Amino acid sequence: MIYETAPAKINLTLDTLYKRDDGYHEVEMIMTTIDINDRLTFETREDGEIVIDVEHNFVPSDHRNLAYKAAKLMQDKYNIKQGVTISLEKSIPISAGLAGGSSDAAATFRGLNELWGINDSLEALSELASEIGSDISFCIYGKTALCRGRGEQLTHLPKPPSAWVVVAKPDIGVSTPEIYGALDLNETIEVPTKACLEALETGDYEMLCQSLGNSLESVTMHLYPEVEKLKNTMQNSGVDAALMSGSGPTVYGFVQKERQAKQVYNALMGCCNDVFIARLLG
Ligand code: ATP
Question: Residue 270 has what pLDDT?
């Protein structure tokens, strides 16, 4: 039996550059990893089947699960006759902008690489992963990276300075295609990608706090005003910086002391059910 953890990601930046001929948006985003984790176990089956064992109302246990898609792709690509039972324990909120499904898929690539004795490199797994989702390549490594293309072209970066992250998700789910569909590229804000890269290079916490940006934030906030309300509440509760992650609706805030993190957590508990205190892992 193999165990893997699947950590959530947050966007320090997300810039949408232009719409490509293939319908995807060309993006430039800096992502890092936080310690909110799904847990997966992998057990070989001799009947060749892929079985997902998950108890969650909003997570499919069939071929629609990203962990299933990852396992199927591994079987086909490496010509594996064995199957697998994947037990999935979710902690990462669903449809949140935290790449929960992508991280589960990435953990599946890593887990099966070991369970089935494939032993391919992380680079090869990361490339293969881009066939089933844009954020999975990043999640293969976790860590911190500048992600370009659809998100699958990675440049690894230094880990961010240490900080507490308070993460809160309003009680709504947001679909990524819906947000990209509503995006008007003539109305996007300037995203401080360069400043954020410099903050990571120099390990400067204050500068990092000033160089967060997400061009999807106003789009999601326009459709779901509760996201803006949550961000305002977070800012008023004393975080050093706050931003929506991915296409939302999750908002996170940075503080340096655990005591402050608890204060922010308490202020947000009345607003939504999903509130977490986490650390930057990067
Ligand atoms: P991203 O930040 O990459 O857009 P997300 O955090 O917004 O991801 P997820 O929680 O990864 O969204 O999943 C969104 C949808 O994918 C859900 O509607 C869910 O039904 C489906 N899904 C497929 N596999 C999984 C999985 N392993 N965990 C969670 N959701 C999954």
Answer: 86
CATH at 149: 3.30.230.10
Q: pTM of the entire structure?
A: 0.96
How confident is the model at residue 188, as a pLDDT? 87
- Identify whether the C-beta of residue 216 lies closer than 8 Å to the C-beta of residue 28: no
- Same domain membership, residue 125 and residue 109: yes
Nearest to 276 by CA among 36, 27, 24, 31: 36
Is residue 10 located within the same domain as residue 145? yes
Dist. CA 202 → ligand 1 center (Å): 34
> Of how many residues is the chain composed?
282
135 catalytic, yes or no? yes
- The sign one gets for the Cα dihedral 98, 147, 142, 22 is positive
pLDDT tens-place string over residues 177-192: 999 999 999 888 999 9
Q: Which atom of ligand 1 is nearest to the CA of 93?
A: 10
Sign of CA dihedral 29, 30, 35, 41: positive
Task: Give the closest residue (by CA) to ligand 1 atom 26.
Answer: 101
What is the extent of the structural domain holding 25? 2-156
Atom 16, ligand 1: residue with shortest CA distance: 101
Burial 253-280, CB ≥16 within 10 A → b, else e:
bbbeeeebbebbbebbeeebebbbbbeb
Q: Rounded mean pLDDT of the chain?
A: 96
Distance in Å, CA 32 to ligand 1 centroid: 18
Cβ atoms within 10 A of the Cβ of 124, count?
14
Q: What is the pLDDT of residue 282?
A: 80
